[in-house]
Amino acid sequence: MIEEKFISGTSFIHSLDPKIRILSASVLSIAAALCDRLDLAVVYFSMSIFLSLLAQLKFSDVMKRLKPLFWFLLMIWIILPITFEGNILYQYSFIKITSPGILLCSKITLKSITILLIFTALIATMTIASLGTGLHRLRIPDKMVFLLLMSYRYIAVIEKEYTRLLRAAKFRGFVARTNLHSYKTFAYLAGMLFVRASLRAQRVHQAMLCRGFNQKFHSLDVYPPNRLNSIFLLGMVVTSLSLIILELIWI
Amino acid sequence: MHISEGVLSGPVLAAGAAIAVAGTGIGLKKIDYDHIVHVAILASAFFVASLIHVPIGPASSHLILNGIVGLLLGFAAFPAILTALLLQSILFQYGGLTALGANAVIMAAPAVLGHYLFLPLLGKSSKFTFVGGFLAGFFSILVSSLLLGAALWFTDQNFFKTSLLIITWNIPIMIIEGIVTGFCVAFLLKVYPEIIPVNKK
């Protein structure tokens, strides 16, 4: 179910410290999200392409990952141009296509792809364990990091339980249809998932206590200090800030 | 149900992030280290439950079940749902960093609210249990879609028609989530009542 295609790589981005990558991704994504000009959105978009190239992401894998986004974008391109008020570009009986609608759609398209590419290039290229380390070193509360690491660890396990339950239902002749029986079956299936998750949590917790769990996770990842880290972060921050300032004085 | 990146305006994103930080902070405070494994693995179950597709006529929709997570975890549902959303965006790319806060609020706030409103109904009688579960499921999706609509409306008032469209679109999902949550809660109370905090009183 889960394929982490981008985590194994030898690119420059992969060698950067997780902390630096999380910070840079946040700064650049926030700047891109705040941008309200189409021309600057193109600049951010090119930066995200540049980062993806730098991380040596495979084009086909990136496209596959962006597929849900493309469906969403298709939907807004159908809805927004006809529901927005403003300057009418084209009219066919009662359907009016307005220019603010088109402009907004283009901005959303560019910005959403940009932010997802930044995320893929900088964050999805590290293991969840590294992400945990990075977040911990950015002083995110320990409990939050613990939740992230622990629930990631058990997703695959719970997913296996789910396929097992579904297989058992299918063996007994269950076919999903739009009726109360199907919904009841799915409800019991989901309920069983929560029951198994809870029972497993008890066992895991006991096992952790037996092994002397003292509320701390230790990371085995080592990222040697590297001057490129600070240069990269500085570059990202300076670029984002100058683009924000540029947009402010442009108006 | 969530908002894609690049849609919401700065103030709305900032408000979403601020509320998410506050909610998560309160939630984390309520979780002690004896229960944190429980919350984490229920967050995984919530993640997996969102992969369950149920048919609605010719189409299908995936379950959301934030109502159940709210009933089971109370305020701890906030960090649990945030965790699941973050993992979804890393593993499936269903979102990026900037809308994470707003999306967490859209999903988690109704779940927490539902906990306080509908938990007292559970376990009184089998009818009350089903109705309580139904209302929790229905209410969670209703409020989630209202919040989503409000986030769009605050971004640009031109989004009004889109917001209405989204809320209408979600009505069948509200009903299905209500039915599934109702049955699910009744099932849990029968087979493993300890999981629902109502019995601890």
Explain the overall architecture.
Chain A is built from 9 helices and 2 strands. Chain A is mainly alpha-helical and about 250 residues long. Chain A has 2 domains: about 10-125 and about 225-250, no CATH class; about 140-210, no CATH class. A two-stranded antiparallel ribbon of chain A has the order 1-2. In chain A, strand 1 and strand 2 form a beta hairpin. Chain A is flat, with a radius of gyration of 23 Å. The termini of chain A are far apart. The model of chain A has no long low-confidence stretch (mean pLDDT about 90). The model of chain B has no long low-confidence stretch (mean pLDDT about 90). Chain B has helices at about 10-30, 35-50, 65-75, 75-90, 100-120, 125-155, 160-170, 170-190, and strands at about 55, 60. By secondary structure, chain B is mainly alpha-helical. In chain B, about 70% of the residues lie in helices and about 5% in strands. Chain B is globular and about 45 Å long. Chain B has 8 helices and 2 strands. Chain B has a single domain (about 10-200), classed as Arp2/3 complex 21 kDa subunit ARPC3 (Orthogonal Bundle), CATH 1.10.1760.20. Chain B has a two-stranded antiparallel ribbon with strand order 1-2. In chain B, a hairpin with a 2-residue loop joins strand 1 and strand 2 (about 60). At the A-B interface, helix 2, helix 4, helix 5, helix 7 and helix 8 of A face helix 1, helix 2, strand 1, helix 4 and helix 7 of B.
Identify the CATH class of chain B.
Mainly Alpha
> Care to count the β-strands of chain A?
2
Main sheet properties of chain B: 2 strands, antiparallel
Instruction: List the uncertain runs of chain A.
Output: none
End-to-end span of chain A in angstroms? 47 Å
Which shape of chain B, going by the Cα principal axes?
A: globular
- CATH architecture descriptor text of chain B: Orthogonal Bundle
Main sheet summary of chain A:
2 strands, antiparallel
* Helix and strand pattern of chain B: HHEEHHHHHH
How many domain regions of chain B? 1
Q: Low-confidence stretches of chain B at least 5 residues in length (pLDDT < 50)?
A: none
| Assembly state (oligomeric) | heterodimer
Beta-strand content estimate of chain A: under 5%
Give the terminus-to-terminus CA distance of chain B: 33 Å
- Overall average pLDDT of chain B: 92
Number of helices of chain B: 8
Please give the order of strands in the largest beta sheet of chain B: 1-2
Approximately what portion of the residues of chain B adopt beta-strand conformation?
Answer: under 5%
Report the largest inter-chain contact: A-B, 87 and 74 residues
Derived structural class of chain A: mainly alpha
